[in-house]
Amino acid sequence: MHDRRTVRRRGITGIVFGVLLTPIAAPATPRSQSTGSTVAPVYSPEEELARFHLPAGYRAELVAAEPLVTDPVAIDFDADGRMYVVEMRGFMPNIKGIGEDKPVGRIVVLEDTDGDGKMDKQTVFLDSLVLPRAVKVLEHGVLVAAPPNLWLVRDTTGDLRADTQELVRDDYGSAAGNPEHNANGLLWGLDNWIHNANYGGQFRMAPDGKLTFRKAPQEGQWGVSMDDYGRLFRNSNEDPLRADLVPSHYATRNANLGNPRGVYEQLTPNVAVWPGHKTPAVNRGYRSETMRADSTLAHYTSAGSPTAYVGDRLPAELHNSVFVTESAGNLVGRFVVRDQPDGSVTARSAYDHAEFMTADDERFRPVNLATAPDGSLYVVDMYRGIIEHRAYITGYLEQKIIERGLDGPIGFGRIWRIVQSGTRRGEAAHLSTKTPAELVQLLAHPNGWWRITAQRMLVERGDRSVVPALRTLLKTHDDPRVRLHALWTLDGLGESDTASVRAALADSSPHVRAAAIRIAEPFLAQPGHSLQSDVLRLVSDSAPVVRRQLAASLGELPIPLRDSALLEMADQHGDDPIVADLVVSGLADRELLFLDRVLNAKPSVAPDATVRALAAAIVRSRDPHDVQRLITLAGETSRPRSQRLALLAGAQSPRGGFTVPLPAKPTGLIRAMSSPDSALRSAARRASEAITWPGKPTTAEPPRRLTAAERSLFVAGQKQFLVTCAPCHQPTGMGLPGVAKPLVGSPWALGPAVRAIRIVLHGKEGQMLMPPVGSSLTDEQIAAVLTYVRRSWGNTATPISPADVKEVRGATAGRSRPWTEAELARVRR
């Protein structure tokens, strides 16, 4: 996994020693060669600036533009405020995407040498990358993501140019994967873990500079950010904002848990957007759901980079805001996020029939955002015509791209600063020369970038001389955000002592109390540790964030104490679905035993949410005897009706396409399937679909065995699926919330072969949207991947041959739009 190498220094044509030093007042700006009235103009940075629209009192300022930066997609800042920019120069060089695999991507460092707020110096830190996606500047080097590789790159001479690079992960996305669905992020969190989007794991930097890894759910599509209290935000195309209300790694603790509530929780459904101009060149723009009659984009279709503003130079009202890019609609939206008394979190658009930032420019492509060292909000503008990847471009969009001249030219890029009139930029960052004691003081800086950067530097440097000052800060500072940073910095240094944790458990801030519970987990795992009683006293805490963290952390207690503590938590708060799932997360393979305790503790008032979550986990365990007992409990007529319904509801939760064979006939369930109570009858019938039993009537024929040729297709299809389909539909076939529906049991995937082939070739409209990928896959590849899907995860549909695909491809060769569900319903053969 670890590969250390020296980076050969490369010169760039026209750039002496890899450094470009030039003003950006008048960058070269090629113009569109077409003179047709429908062609979208190419504007200079000054012209584009004049076409921006922001709320009263706000304005945009140019930070950098071509030739200093080209095709920027992500940025990060070092301790001295220098900006590291990911240049994805290979993305869609033409409408067919030919040449995307060329190693032309770069990481460049931009500097403002004269302090006027505009970058004027460029140094090429690292080049020869294929579609790089993320960068994170650390004390130990610079993390650079270029799937499938994650590199730790070091500048050993101080000239801002890479000298060595070490391969730290070779599973960070897929080299053959779609650029729209590949690993990215690299956010240093308040908890000192490095968080990601579209990747099933997190990292932590050890004192020796090595990355440790732990599994986490794969969430979101492009971008991840956190608010002042460490809550993480992600999103995907038509799903503009989700958040982790609890740390997500607990979701991987129990394989029987499924998709727990509170992790990647939706804060808002898709909402209307209001572009600043007509947007005819959006994918599926022929749909009334996508584009209004006035030719403006109707709702989010390319939501990305959800960014919580934590700076100090914009109005305080923005501190409850998360900004979201919509690159297809040439705008940046703003959501106001609110915590509700019941523990739910909601988000709403900040403006009525308006957005935070729009432009009268079809080539304005905001793809990323960041709170900057100067306290403002930065907008990364890829500035180009084509923003959709070739795999997803419908025939309609291809036509519009050509009509409007959006297939060229390329080679632009801008970065903008959003400021408020009358507010000065913050002081320049020079943190690299700060002493440890000075960095501790910066944990109280009003700009969140300074606080988290100071914390990261203290943790990475590992200087424990600051521990007394951190403990004082934790106990005395009046700002809970500062106390949180002090607490997590102590943890990052390995100095979380009993006294500090105990004090934090009694803190007035629920966020500090919740963090203290989590930090106390190593102590909780020690039998008889004195902190256990302090933590257990918080079971009656009034704050949902504390109760939920407690439900998660109790799963680290030794088992005898764990079960009694979780039982108390379920009794008091088990009707909160998030608490219920967190309780189950700590009960791997002991769910039935715990369910019996829950039902027997207070038979008439057992918490429905917890009962439901336990029942679902028992079915997912696939243990025939445990499932038999569960079904028996659900069939007992002496049991309260609400409890029976909760048991049956859990038994019919998504199960991954399998059925559990019971050793005996479930007589109680069978009686319930004929109950005069319609709710019980319906629930029992749905639960029966998850199980079989001796003598159960069935009309389904067992699937025939695959031939040798079909088996070869299946094996090839598995590999193709992991590259082409798994980023959205997941390796389990269960889909990703807000991104793709499950393929397990899907009537569209498992229906007539000619229907499934049409969907892959040309895409699909409706509830389960599917992009057209036929142009990028051969007949054999489509046959292979469909055969794999139709015979995996319990699916038993017939395999598909390359000849089948060839026939359908030929018969539908003139098709330029995805199929509607009504059209597909008429397809039989």
Offer a concise description of the structure:
With 829 residues, this protein is α+β, with helices and mostly antiparallel strands. The chain has 26 helices and 30 strands.
How many helices? 26
Number of strand segments: 30
Shape verdict: globular
Structural class: alpha+beta
Instruction: Give the rounded overall mean pLDDT.
Output: 91
Could you list the spans in which at least 5 consecutive residues all have pLDDT below 50?
1-37
Helix coverage percent of residues? 25-40%
The radius of gyration computed from the alpha-carbon positions, rounded to a whole number of angstroms, is 28 Å
Largest sheet properties: 6 strands, antiparallel
Beta-strand share of residues:
15-25%
Distance between the termini: 49 Å
Quickly list its features.
829 residues, six-stranded antiparallel β-sheet, five-stranded antiparallel β-sheet, 26 helices, 30% helix, globular, disordered N terminus
